[in-house]
Design goal:
By secondary structure, the protein is α+β, with helices and mostly antiparallel strands. The protein contains 14 helices and 18 strands.
Length: 406
């Protein structure tokens, strides 16, 4: 390891491909917001209380044990125009309906809980902590050293007196070389986030989507249908691990090799329906056209076990079924509004030369998500003629595809 690493600055673009959520771990206080005209407004309650004229009426209501009545009272007497300190658009009719019923019926069982993004307390902007991005990078780097560091599945579940995989790969915490990588928080403006409903999508085609709650997310390409890019500056002092230099090029390749196969496999297993494929078409195009200075990364909540654990030694804990045996993992995916997977981001190192990348060949079926979608279209083109395709037909179509004429 270098004694005095030389700090390098890299200009980074984060291309948000799908919705992303990094939360606080707490839901929004039901008394701290109102919903008006399709937007959730965070309310300055202190300012509203000071401005409220009838203090006796207010005190009597606040002292009530009826939670639902207090919430309805606040909603009926607060003007978002006068007391809103920040607002979020809502892309979920179900949430609007639940909120209206909760207020109109004063139903204490319906709290209408919403999980917000992390926010800057000064300007109330949502943000992604730099530590979340760094953690995703760390996982991809660690995956490169599973064999060299002799990591086993038992290291993943740390036992008393034995080092875990982090210590085997990165060393003791006070000497962790990842300290030489520094990433700032990424802030979003007022219209960059939206509230959606998370729904669990199962491999079982007969199982309906399972509601998982309402979440504020940073909007991605699959939702907006246009580029969503956040720029930042990354600081890196190249360091050495297991006789391997860790620099920007190594990080890019680690991310690409770890996360791209995860996306491809997830797409193949879970996203066979036409409506989801339509949402992911621009995402597929971005991933499959990445240059050598670009890679894929997955950030935030609902990243799923494959993206937060290491290949070869993956051994997640799952709850037990009725037979007391652990349930299988990797059988569901959580989607925003039942259509968009969470957390996929393309990371671009702007100051590194961009060259055409040759995608690695995969042994698994559906190794290229865009190819899968395009093959489907080719089959439709063939079948539209009404005749059974011949070998020659397929050969001509393949040639057109190679030359970009289809």
């Amino acid at each position: 390891m270098y004694n005095m690493p030389q700090l390098e600055k890299h200009r980074i673009n984060l291309h948000l491909l799908t919705p992303l959520h990094v939360g606080t771990g707490q839901d929004v206080d039901p008394f701290s917001y109102v919903i008006e005209d399709g937007r959730l407004h965070f309310i300055d309650l202190i300012k509203w209380i000071d401005a409220f004229q009838d203090k006796n009426k207010l005190n009597k209501m606040v002292e009530s044990d009826n939670f639902a009545a207090v919430r309805t009272f606040i909603v009926k007497h607060v003007s978002a125009k006068d007391f809103s300190i920040a607002s979020i658009s809502i892309d979920c009719p179900k949430l609007l309906g639940m909120y209206k019923r909760a207020i109109d019926n004063q139903d204490p069982r319906n709290q209408v809980l919403i999980s917000p993004m992390m926010r800057n307390e000064v300007n109330m902007d949502a943000y992604i902590p730099g530590s979340s991005i760094k953690g995703a990078i760390r996982t991809a780097i660690a995956n490169r050293f599973v064999d060299v560091a002799r990591v086993t599945s038992s290291d993943v579940r740390r036992s008393r007196g034995n080092p875990d995989y982090n210590e085997k790969i990165f060393g003791r915490i006070n000497n962790d070389p990842m300290k030489w990588l520094k990433i700032p928080d990424v802030s979003f403006g007022s219209d960059a986030t939206v509230i959606i409903e998370a729904k669990e999508h199962s491999l079982n085609p007969d199982k309906s989507l399972t509601p998982k709650g309402f979440y504020e997310v940073a909007k991605g390409l699959s939702q907006t249908r246009s580029s969503v890019i956040k720029s930042l500056s990354l600081s890196l002092a190249p360091f050495e691990m297991h006789r391997q230099k860790i620099d920007a090029a190594f990080i890019i390749e680690s991310l690409y090799k770890f996360y791209v196969p995860k996306y491809q496999e997830e797409y193949r297993k879970f996203y066979g329906t036409e409506n989801i494929q339509e949402m992911l078409e621009p995402v597929n195009q971005e991933i499959n056209s990445m240059k050598t200075n670009e890679a894929l990364i997955r950030i935030g909540h609902f990243s799923h076990v494959e993206c937060v654990t290491l290949d070869k030694v993956r051994k997640p804990r799952t709850r037990r079924g009725r037979d007391s045996r652990p349930l299988p993992w990797g059988t569901t995916r959580t989607l925003a509004n039942g259509l968009h997977p969470f957390g996929w981001v393309k990371i671009e190192f702007c100051d590194i030369k961009a060259e055409t990348r040759i995608p690695p060949q995969s042994k698994s079926k559906g190794q290229n998500a865009v190819t899968d979608t395009t093959m489907s279209r080719r089959r439709k083109i063939i079948s539209s003629s009404g005749a059974k395709p011949t070998v020659a037909d397929i050969a001509r179509l393949k040639e057109k595809f190679k030359t970009g004429k289809i």
